[in-house]
Amino acid sequence: MTIPRSRSRSALSLGQLRALEAVVRTGSFSAAAKDVGVSQPSISNHIQGLEGRYKTKLLVKSGYSVTPAPALKALLPKIRAALALTRDIESELARQTTLTAGDLRIGYSTYQLAIPRISHFMSRYPDIVIEARALATQDILDLFENGDIDIGFVTGKEIPAGLDGELLMQSRIVLAAPSDHPLATRDQVTWTDVAKLPLLQRESTSGTRRLFEGAATVAGIKPKTILALGSWGSIATLIRSGLGLGIAMEAELSERDGCIPIPISDPALIARHYVVWQKEMAKVATVEAFRASLLEPLGVPANDVPAPT
Known about the structure:
Blueprint: H1 5-8, H2 14-26, H3 29-36, H4 40-54, E1 59-62, E2 65-68, H5 70-73, H6 76-97, E3 103-108, H7 111-124, E4 129-134, H8 137-145, E5 151-156, E6 163-178, H9 191-195, E7 198-202, H10 207-218, E8 224-229, H11 232-240, E9 245-249, E10 259-263, E11 270-278, H12 285-293
Parallel strand pairs: 3-4, 3-5, 7-8, 7-9
Antiparallel strand pairs: 1-2, 5-11, 6-9, 6-10, 6-11
C-alpha cells in the first residue's frame, strides 16, 4: 500500500522553526535553549530532525559558534516573518481570552428580560462587539443549528435538546388587557372565557404562544387568534386600541404598555425563560463570561463585580 506523501512525514513545526532561528540569532545551541526555554538536547533534536528530513545542511559549526549555511540564509527572512505572524496570532488569541476583543451573537425573544442582561454584560466588557437580534424562540433555535448564534434567550418548558443553559426566570402566561376592560376586575378567568375572546398573539414560532396553545388544546379549547405579530410592542399598541386581548408572559408587561395581566385559571400556564448556548461553545471565553454575568446582580457597577476566573 502506498502511503500518501503528506501523511508519511510529520509536518514542519513551529518548535523547529523557533529552535533554528534562535540558534542563528544567539550563535549557539546552549544560548538558543535558554532563549526558547527548552533543554539543549531539545534544540539539537529539532535541528537534526530538520536536516535529516530535508537532507540539507542548515547550520555550520566553527569552534563554539554556529552560523547559517547558505541554504538557510536565503530562508531566514521567511522564517522570521512566519514567527512574527505567529506571535501576532498568539497575541490576538490572548486578547480574546482576556476579553479585550471578540464578538458575541445573541438572539432574544423577550426584550424586557434580555436587554437588561445584555446591557449589564456590555458594561462589564465594553470591547466585546455584540450583535443582538429580536426573534421568536424557534427561529433562535434554528440559528443554533446553523451555527449562526452564540447565546439565545428562549421560552419553553425546558432547555432545548442539544443545548446547555440556565433558567433565567419563570412567569405566568396571562391575558393582557386594557385597564378599563370588563374582565380587568376579575381575579382570574377560565378557559371558557378565553375561548370567546379575540386574541392577539406572537407568531407561530413563539415559545409563549406554543405553550399557551398546547395548554388550550389540553383544556379542549381552540383560541380565536385574530392577528399574529412579530413584536410585543405592536401587540400592546393594538390592545390599547381595543382590537383584542393579548397573550403574554406576565414578566413582559410594564406600566408603559398600558395593559394589565389577567391570570387564566390553569396551573399549566407557566413559561420558563432560559439563556442557552451550544454545549461545545461553553468554554469559549465570550460565552463563558456571559454565563458568569448571569449570576451577577443587575445594576452593580462594573468595578464592583469581580471578573470571572
